[in-house]
Amino acid sequence: MLKQNKKITVVVAILSVIFISTISFTSHVQPRYKNLKVLPQDISHDGLDSVMDGFKAALGVKCNFCHAPSKTQPGRMDMASDENPHKDIARNMLRMTIEMNDKYIANIPHADTVKLQSITCATCHRGQAIPTVTK
């Protein structure tokens, strides 16, 4: 009986060590990027770069148009900061274009047989930070 209790104790101890090791080495997946409010949290690096490159081309701007400078690393941008008001404007514009494409463009009759363009930043901005109003 004593020998069997020792075996059970050893097995329980080994299983406990394996369990604790597994938990300690298994990291909880943290979002790759901080402060994404419209774009998906699991967006890939290439996906995010593509979106940002699209913004830059559509508005004819650079990163610092929407992103604030870092307060701790001179010469770098703080991509997560909301200090620059243009960033929130960009988020609202992105929400607007998503809504227009989902609500209106996708529901145009015969949309399944006709290749339709979607609304993008370039639709209005056309390479300018502030879109030109035409009459």
Structure commentary:
This protein has 135 residues and is mainly alpha-helical. It is 47% helix and 3% strand. The chain has 4 helices and 2 strands; from the N terminus they run ααββαα. The chain has helices spanning 2-25, 45-59, 85-103, 121-125; strands at 68-69, 77-78. A two-stranded antiparallel sheet has the order 1-2. A hairpin with a 7-residue loop joins strand 1 (68-69) and strand 2 (77-78). The longest helix is centred in the N-terminal third of the chain and has 24 residues, at 2-25. The protein is flat.
Structural class: mainly alpha
The average pLDDT value, as a whole number, equals: 83
Major β-sheet, in short? 2 strands, antiparallel
The global form is flat
**Spatial extent as radius of gyration:** 26 Å
Task: Tell me the span between the first and last alpha carbons.
Answer: 95 Å
User: Which oligomerization state do the chains in this entry correspond to?
Assistant: single chain
Fraction of residues in helix: 40-55%
The run of helices and strands is HHEEHH
Biggest sheet: strand arrangement: 1-2
Total beta strands: 2
